[in-house]
Amino acid sequence: MLKFVSTGDAGPSASTSTDSVDTHPASASTSTDPEQPASANTVQTSSESRKTVTDPGEVQAASVSTSTTRGVQSAADTSSSDPNRTVAAPPNDPADWPPVLTDFMRTELVRRGPFKPGLDFSFPKDKSRRAFHSGLLQRKLSNGEKIHRSWLTYSIKNNAVYCFCCKLFSTKYNKIIKEGVNDWSNINAILKHHESSPEHTQNMIKWRELDLRLSQGQTLDQIQMTIYEAERKRWRDVLTRLISITQSLAERNLAFRGSSEKLFQPDNGNFLKEVELLAKFDPIMENHLSKIKDGQTHAHYLGQHTQNELIQIVSGKILEAIVTQIRDSKYFSIILDCTPDISHQEQMSIILRSVALRGKPEIKEHFLGFVNVEATTGLNLSTVILNKLNELKISFEDCRGQAFDNGANMKGKNQGLQARLLRRNPSAVFVPCGAHTLNLVIADAAKSSKDAVGFFGHVQKLFTFFSAGTQRWSVLKKHVKITMKSWSDTR
Ligand SMILES: [Zn+2]
Question: What dotted CATH number matches 318-436?
Answer without folding.
Answer: 3.30.420
